[in-house]
Amino acid sequence: MSTLSDRPHTAVLVVDVQNGVVGEAFERDRVVANISTLVGKARAGGVPVVWVQHSSENLVKDSEQWQLVPELSRDGSESLVHKTYADSFEATDLEDVLASAGIGHLIVSGAQTDECIRSTIHGAMVRGYDVTLVADAHTTEDLSEYGAPTPDKVIAHTNLYWQYHRAPGRTAAVQKTDEVTF
């Protein structure tokens, strides 16, 4: 149970699945298809979907690179959170969006695994949320030329450590897209 005991509901969080973020991402098409499936399951189950879009000098708001990938479409009733930091909670209205809907459990998907996904799942846990990371619905680009592990290893490591992550009164979990139920 979440430490946000007055928030019994769940939401799906789709982080930064934008043209300029996932264009060169590892297994991009498979991951985007899994996110699409996850969003469809959430909608069918009446579970809110919250979309997050990052902007920066290299990802200019309203540019083609900033747009969500064409395979995904946000329903006009679904919340959209604009961010400029890796953690989707930092300097955004995400907490207000979640609080107003009584959300205490987040199911997280998106990109980049080694930056915005990690920052957001940790940020959520620190703020009192239960967090499920969707194992096959997050990705990252290959930064191995800079000394990082290859994307498959970044994703596998994140899934591995998150399944064992815990905090008082909060839970962390890792599930594949086909295992997520609402």
What labels describe this entry?
Rossmann fold; 182 residues; alpha/beta; seven-stranded mixed beta sheet; 7 strands; 5 helices; 25% strand
Describe the structure.
The chain has a single domain (9-175), classed as 3-Layer(aba) Sandwich (Rossmann fold), CATH 3.40.50.850. 30% of the residues lie in helices and 25% in strands. The protein is built from five helices and seven strands. It has helices at residues 19-22, 28-44, 94-100, 113-126, 151-163, and strands at 9-15, 49-54, 79-83, 103-111, 130-139, 166-167, 170-175. Strands 3-2-1-4-5-7-6 form a seven-stranded mixed sheet. α4 (113-126) links the parallel β4 and β5 (130-139). The radius of gyration is 15 Å and the shape is globular. The model has no long low-confidence stretch (mean pLDDT 96). This is Isochorismatase family protein. InterPro entries: Isochorismatase-like_dom, Isochorismatase-like_hydrls, Isochorismatase-like_sf. It comes from Kribbella soli. Residues 10-142 form the Isochorismatase-like domain.
Question: What's this entry about, in short?
Answer:
The protein has 182 residues and is an alpha/beta fold.
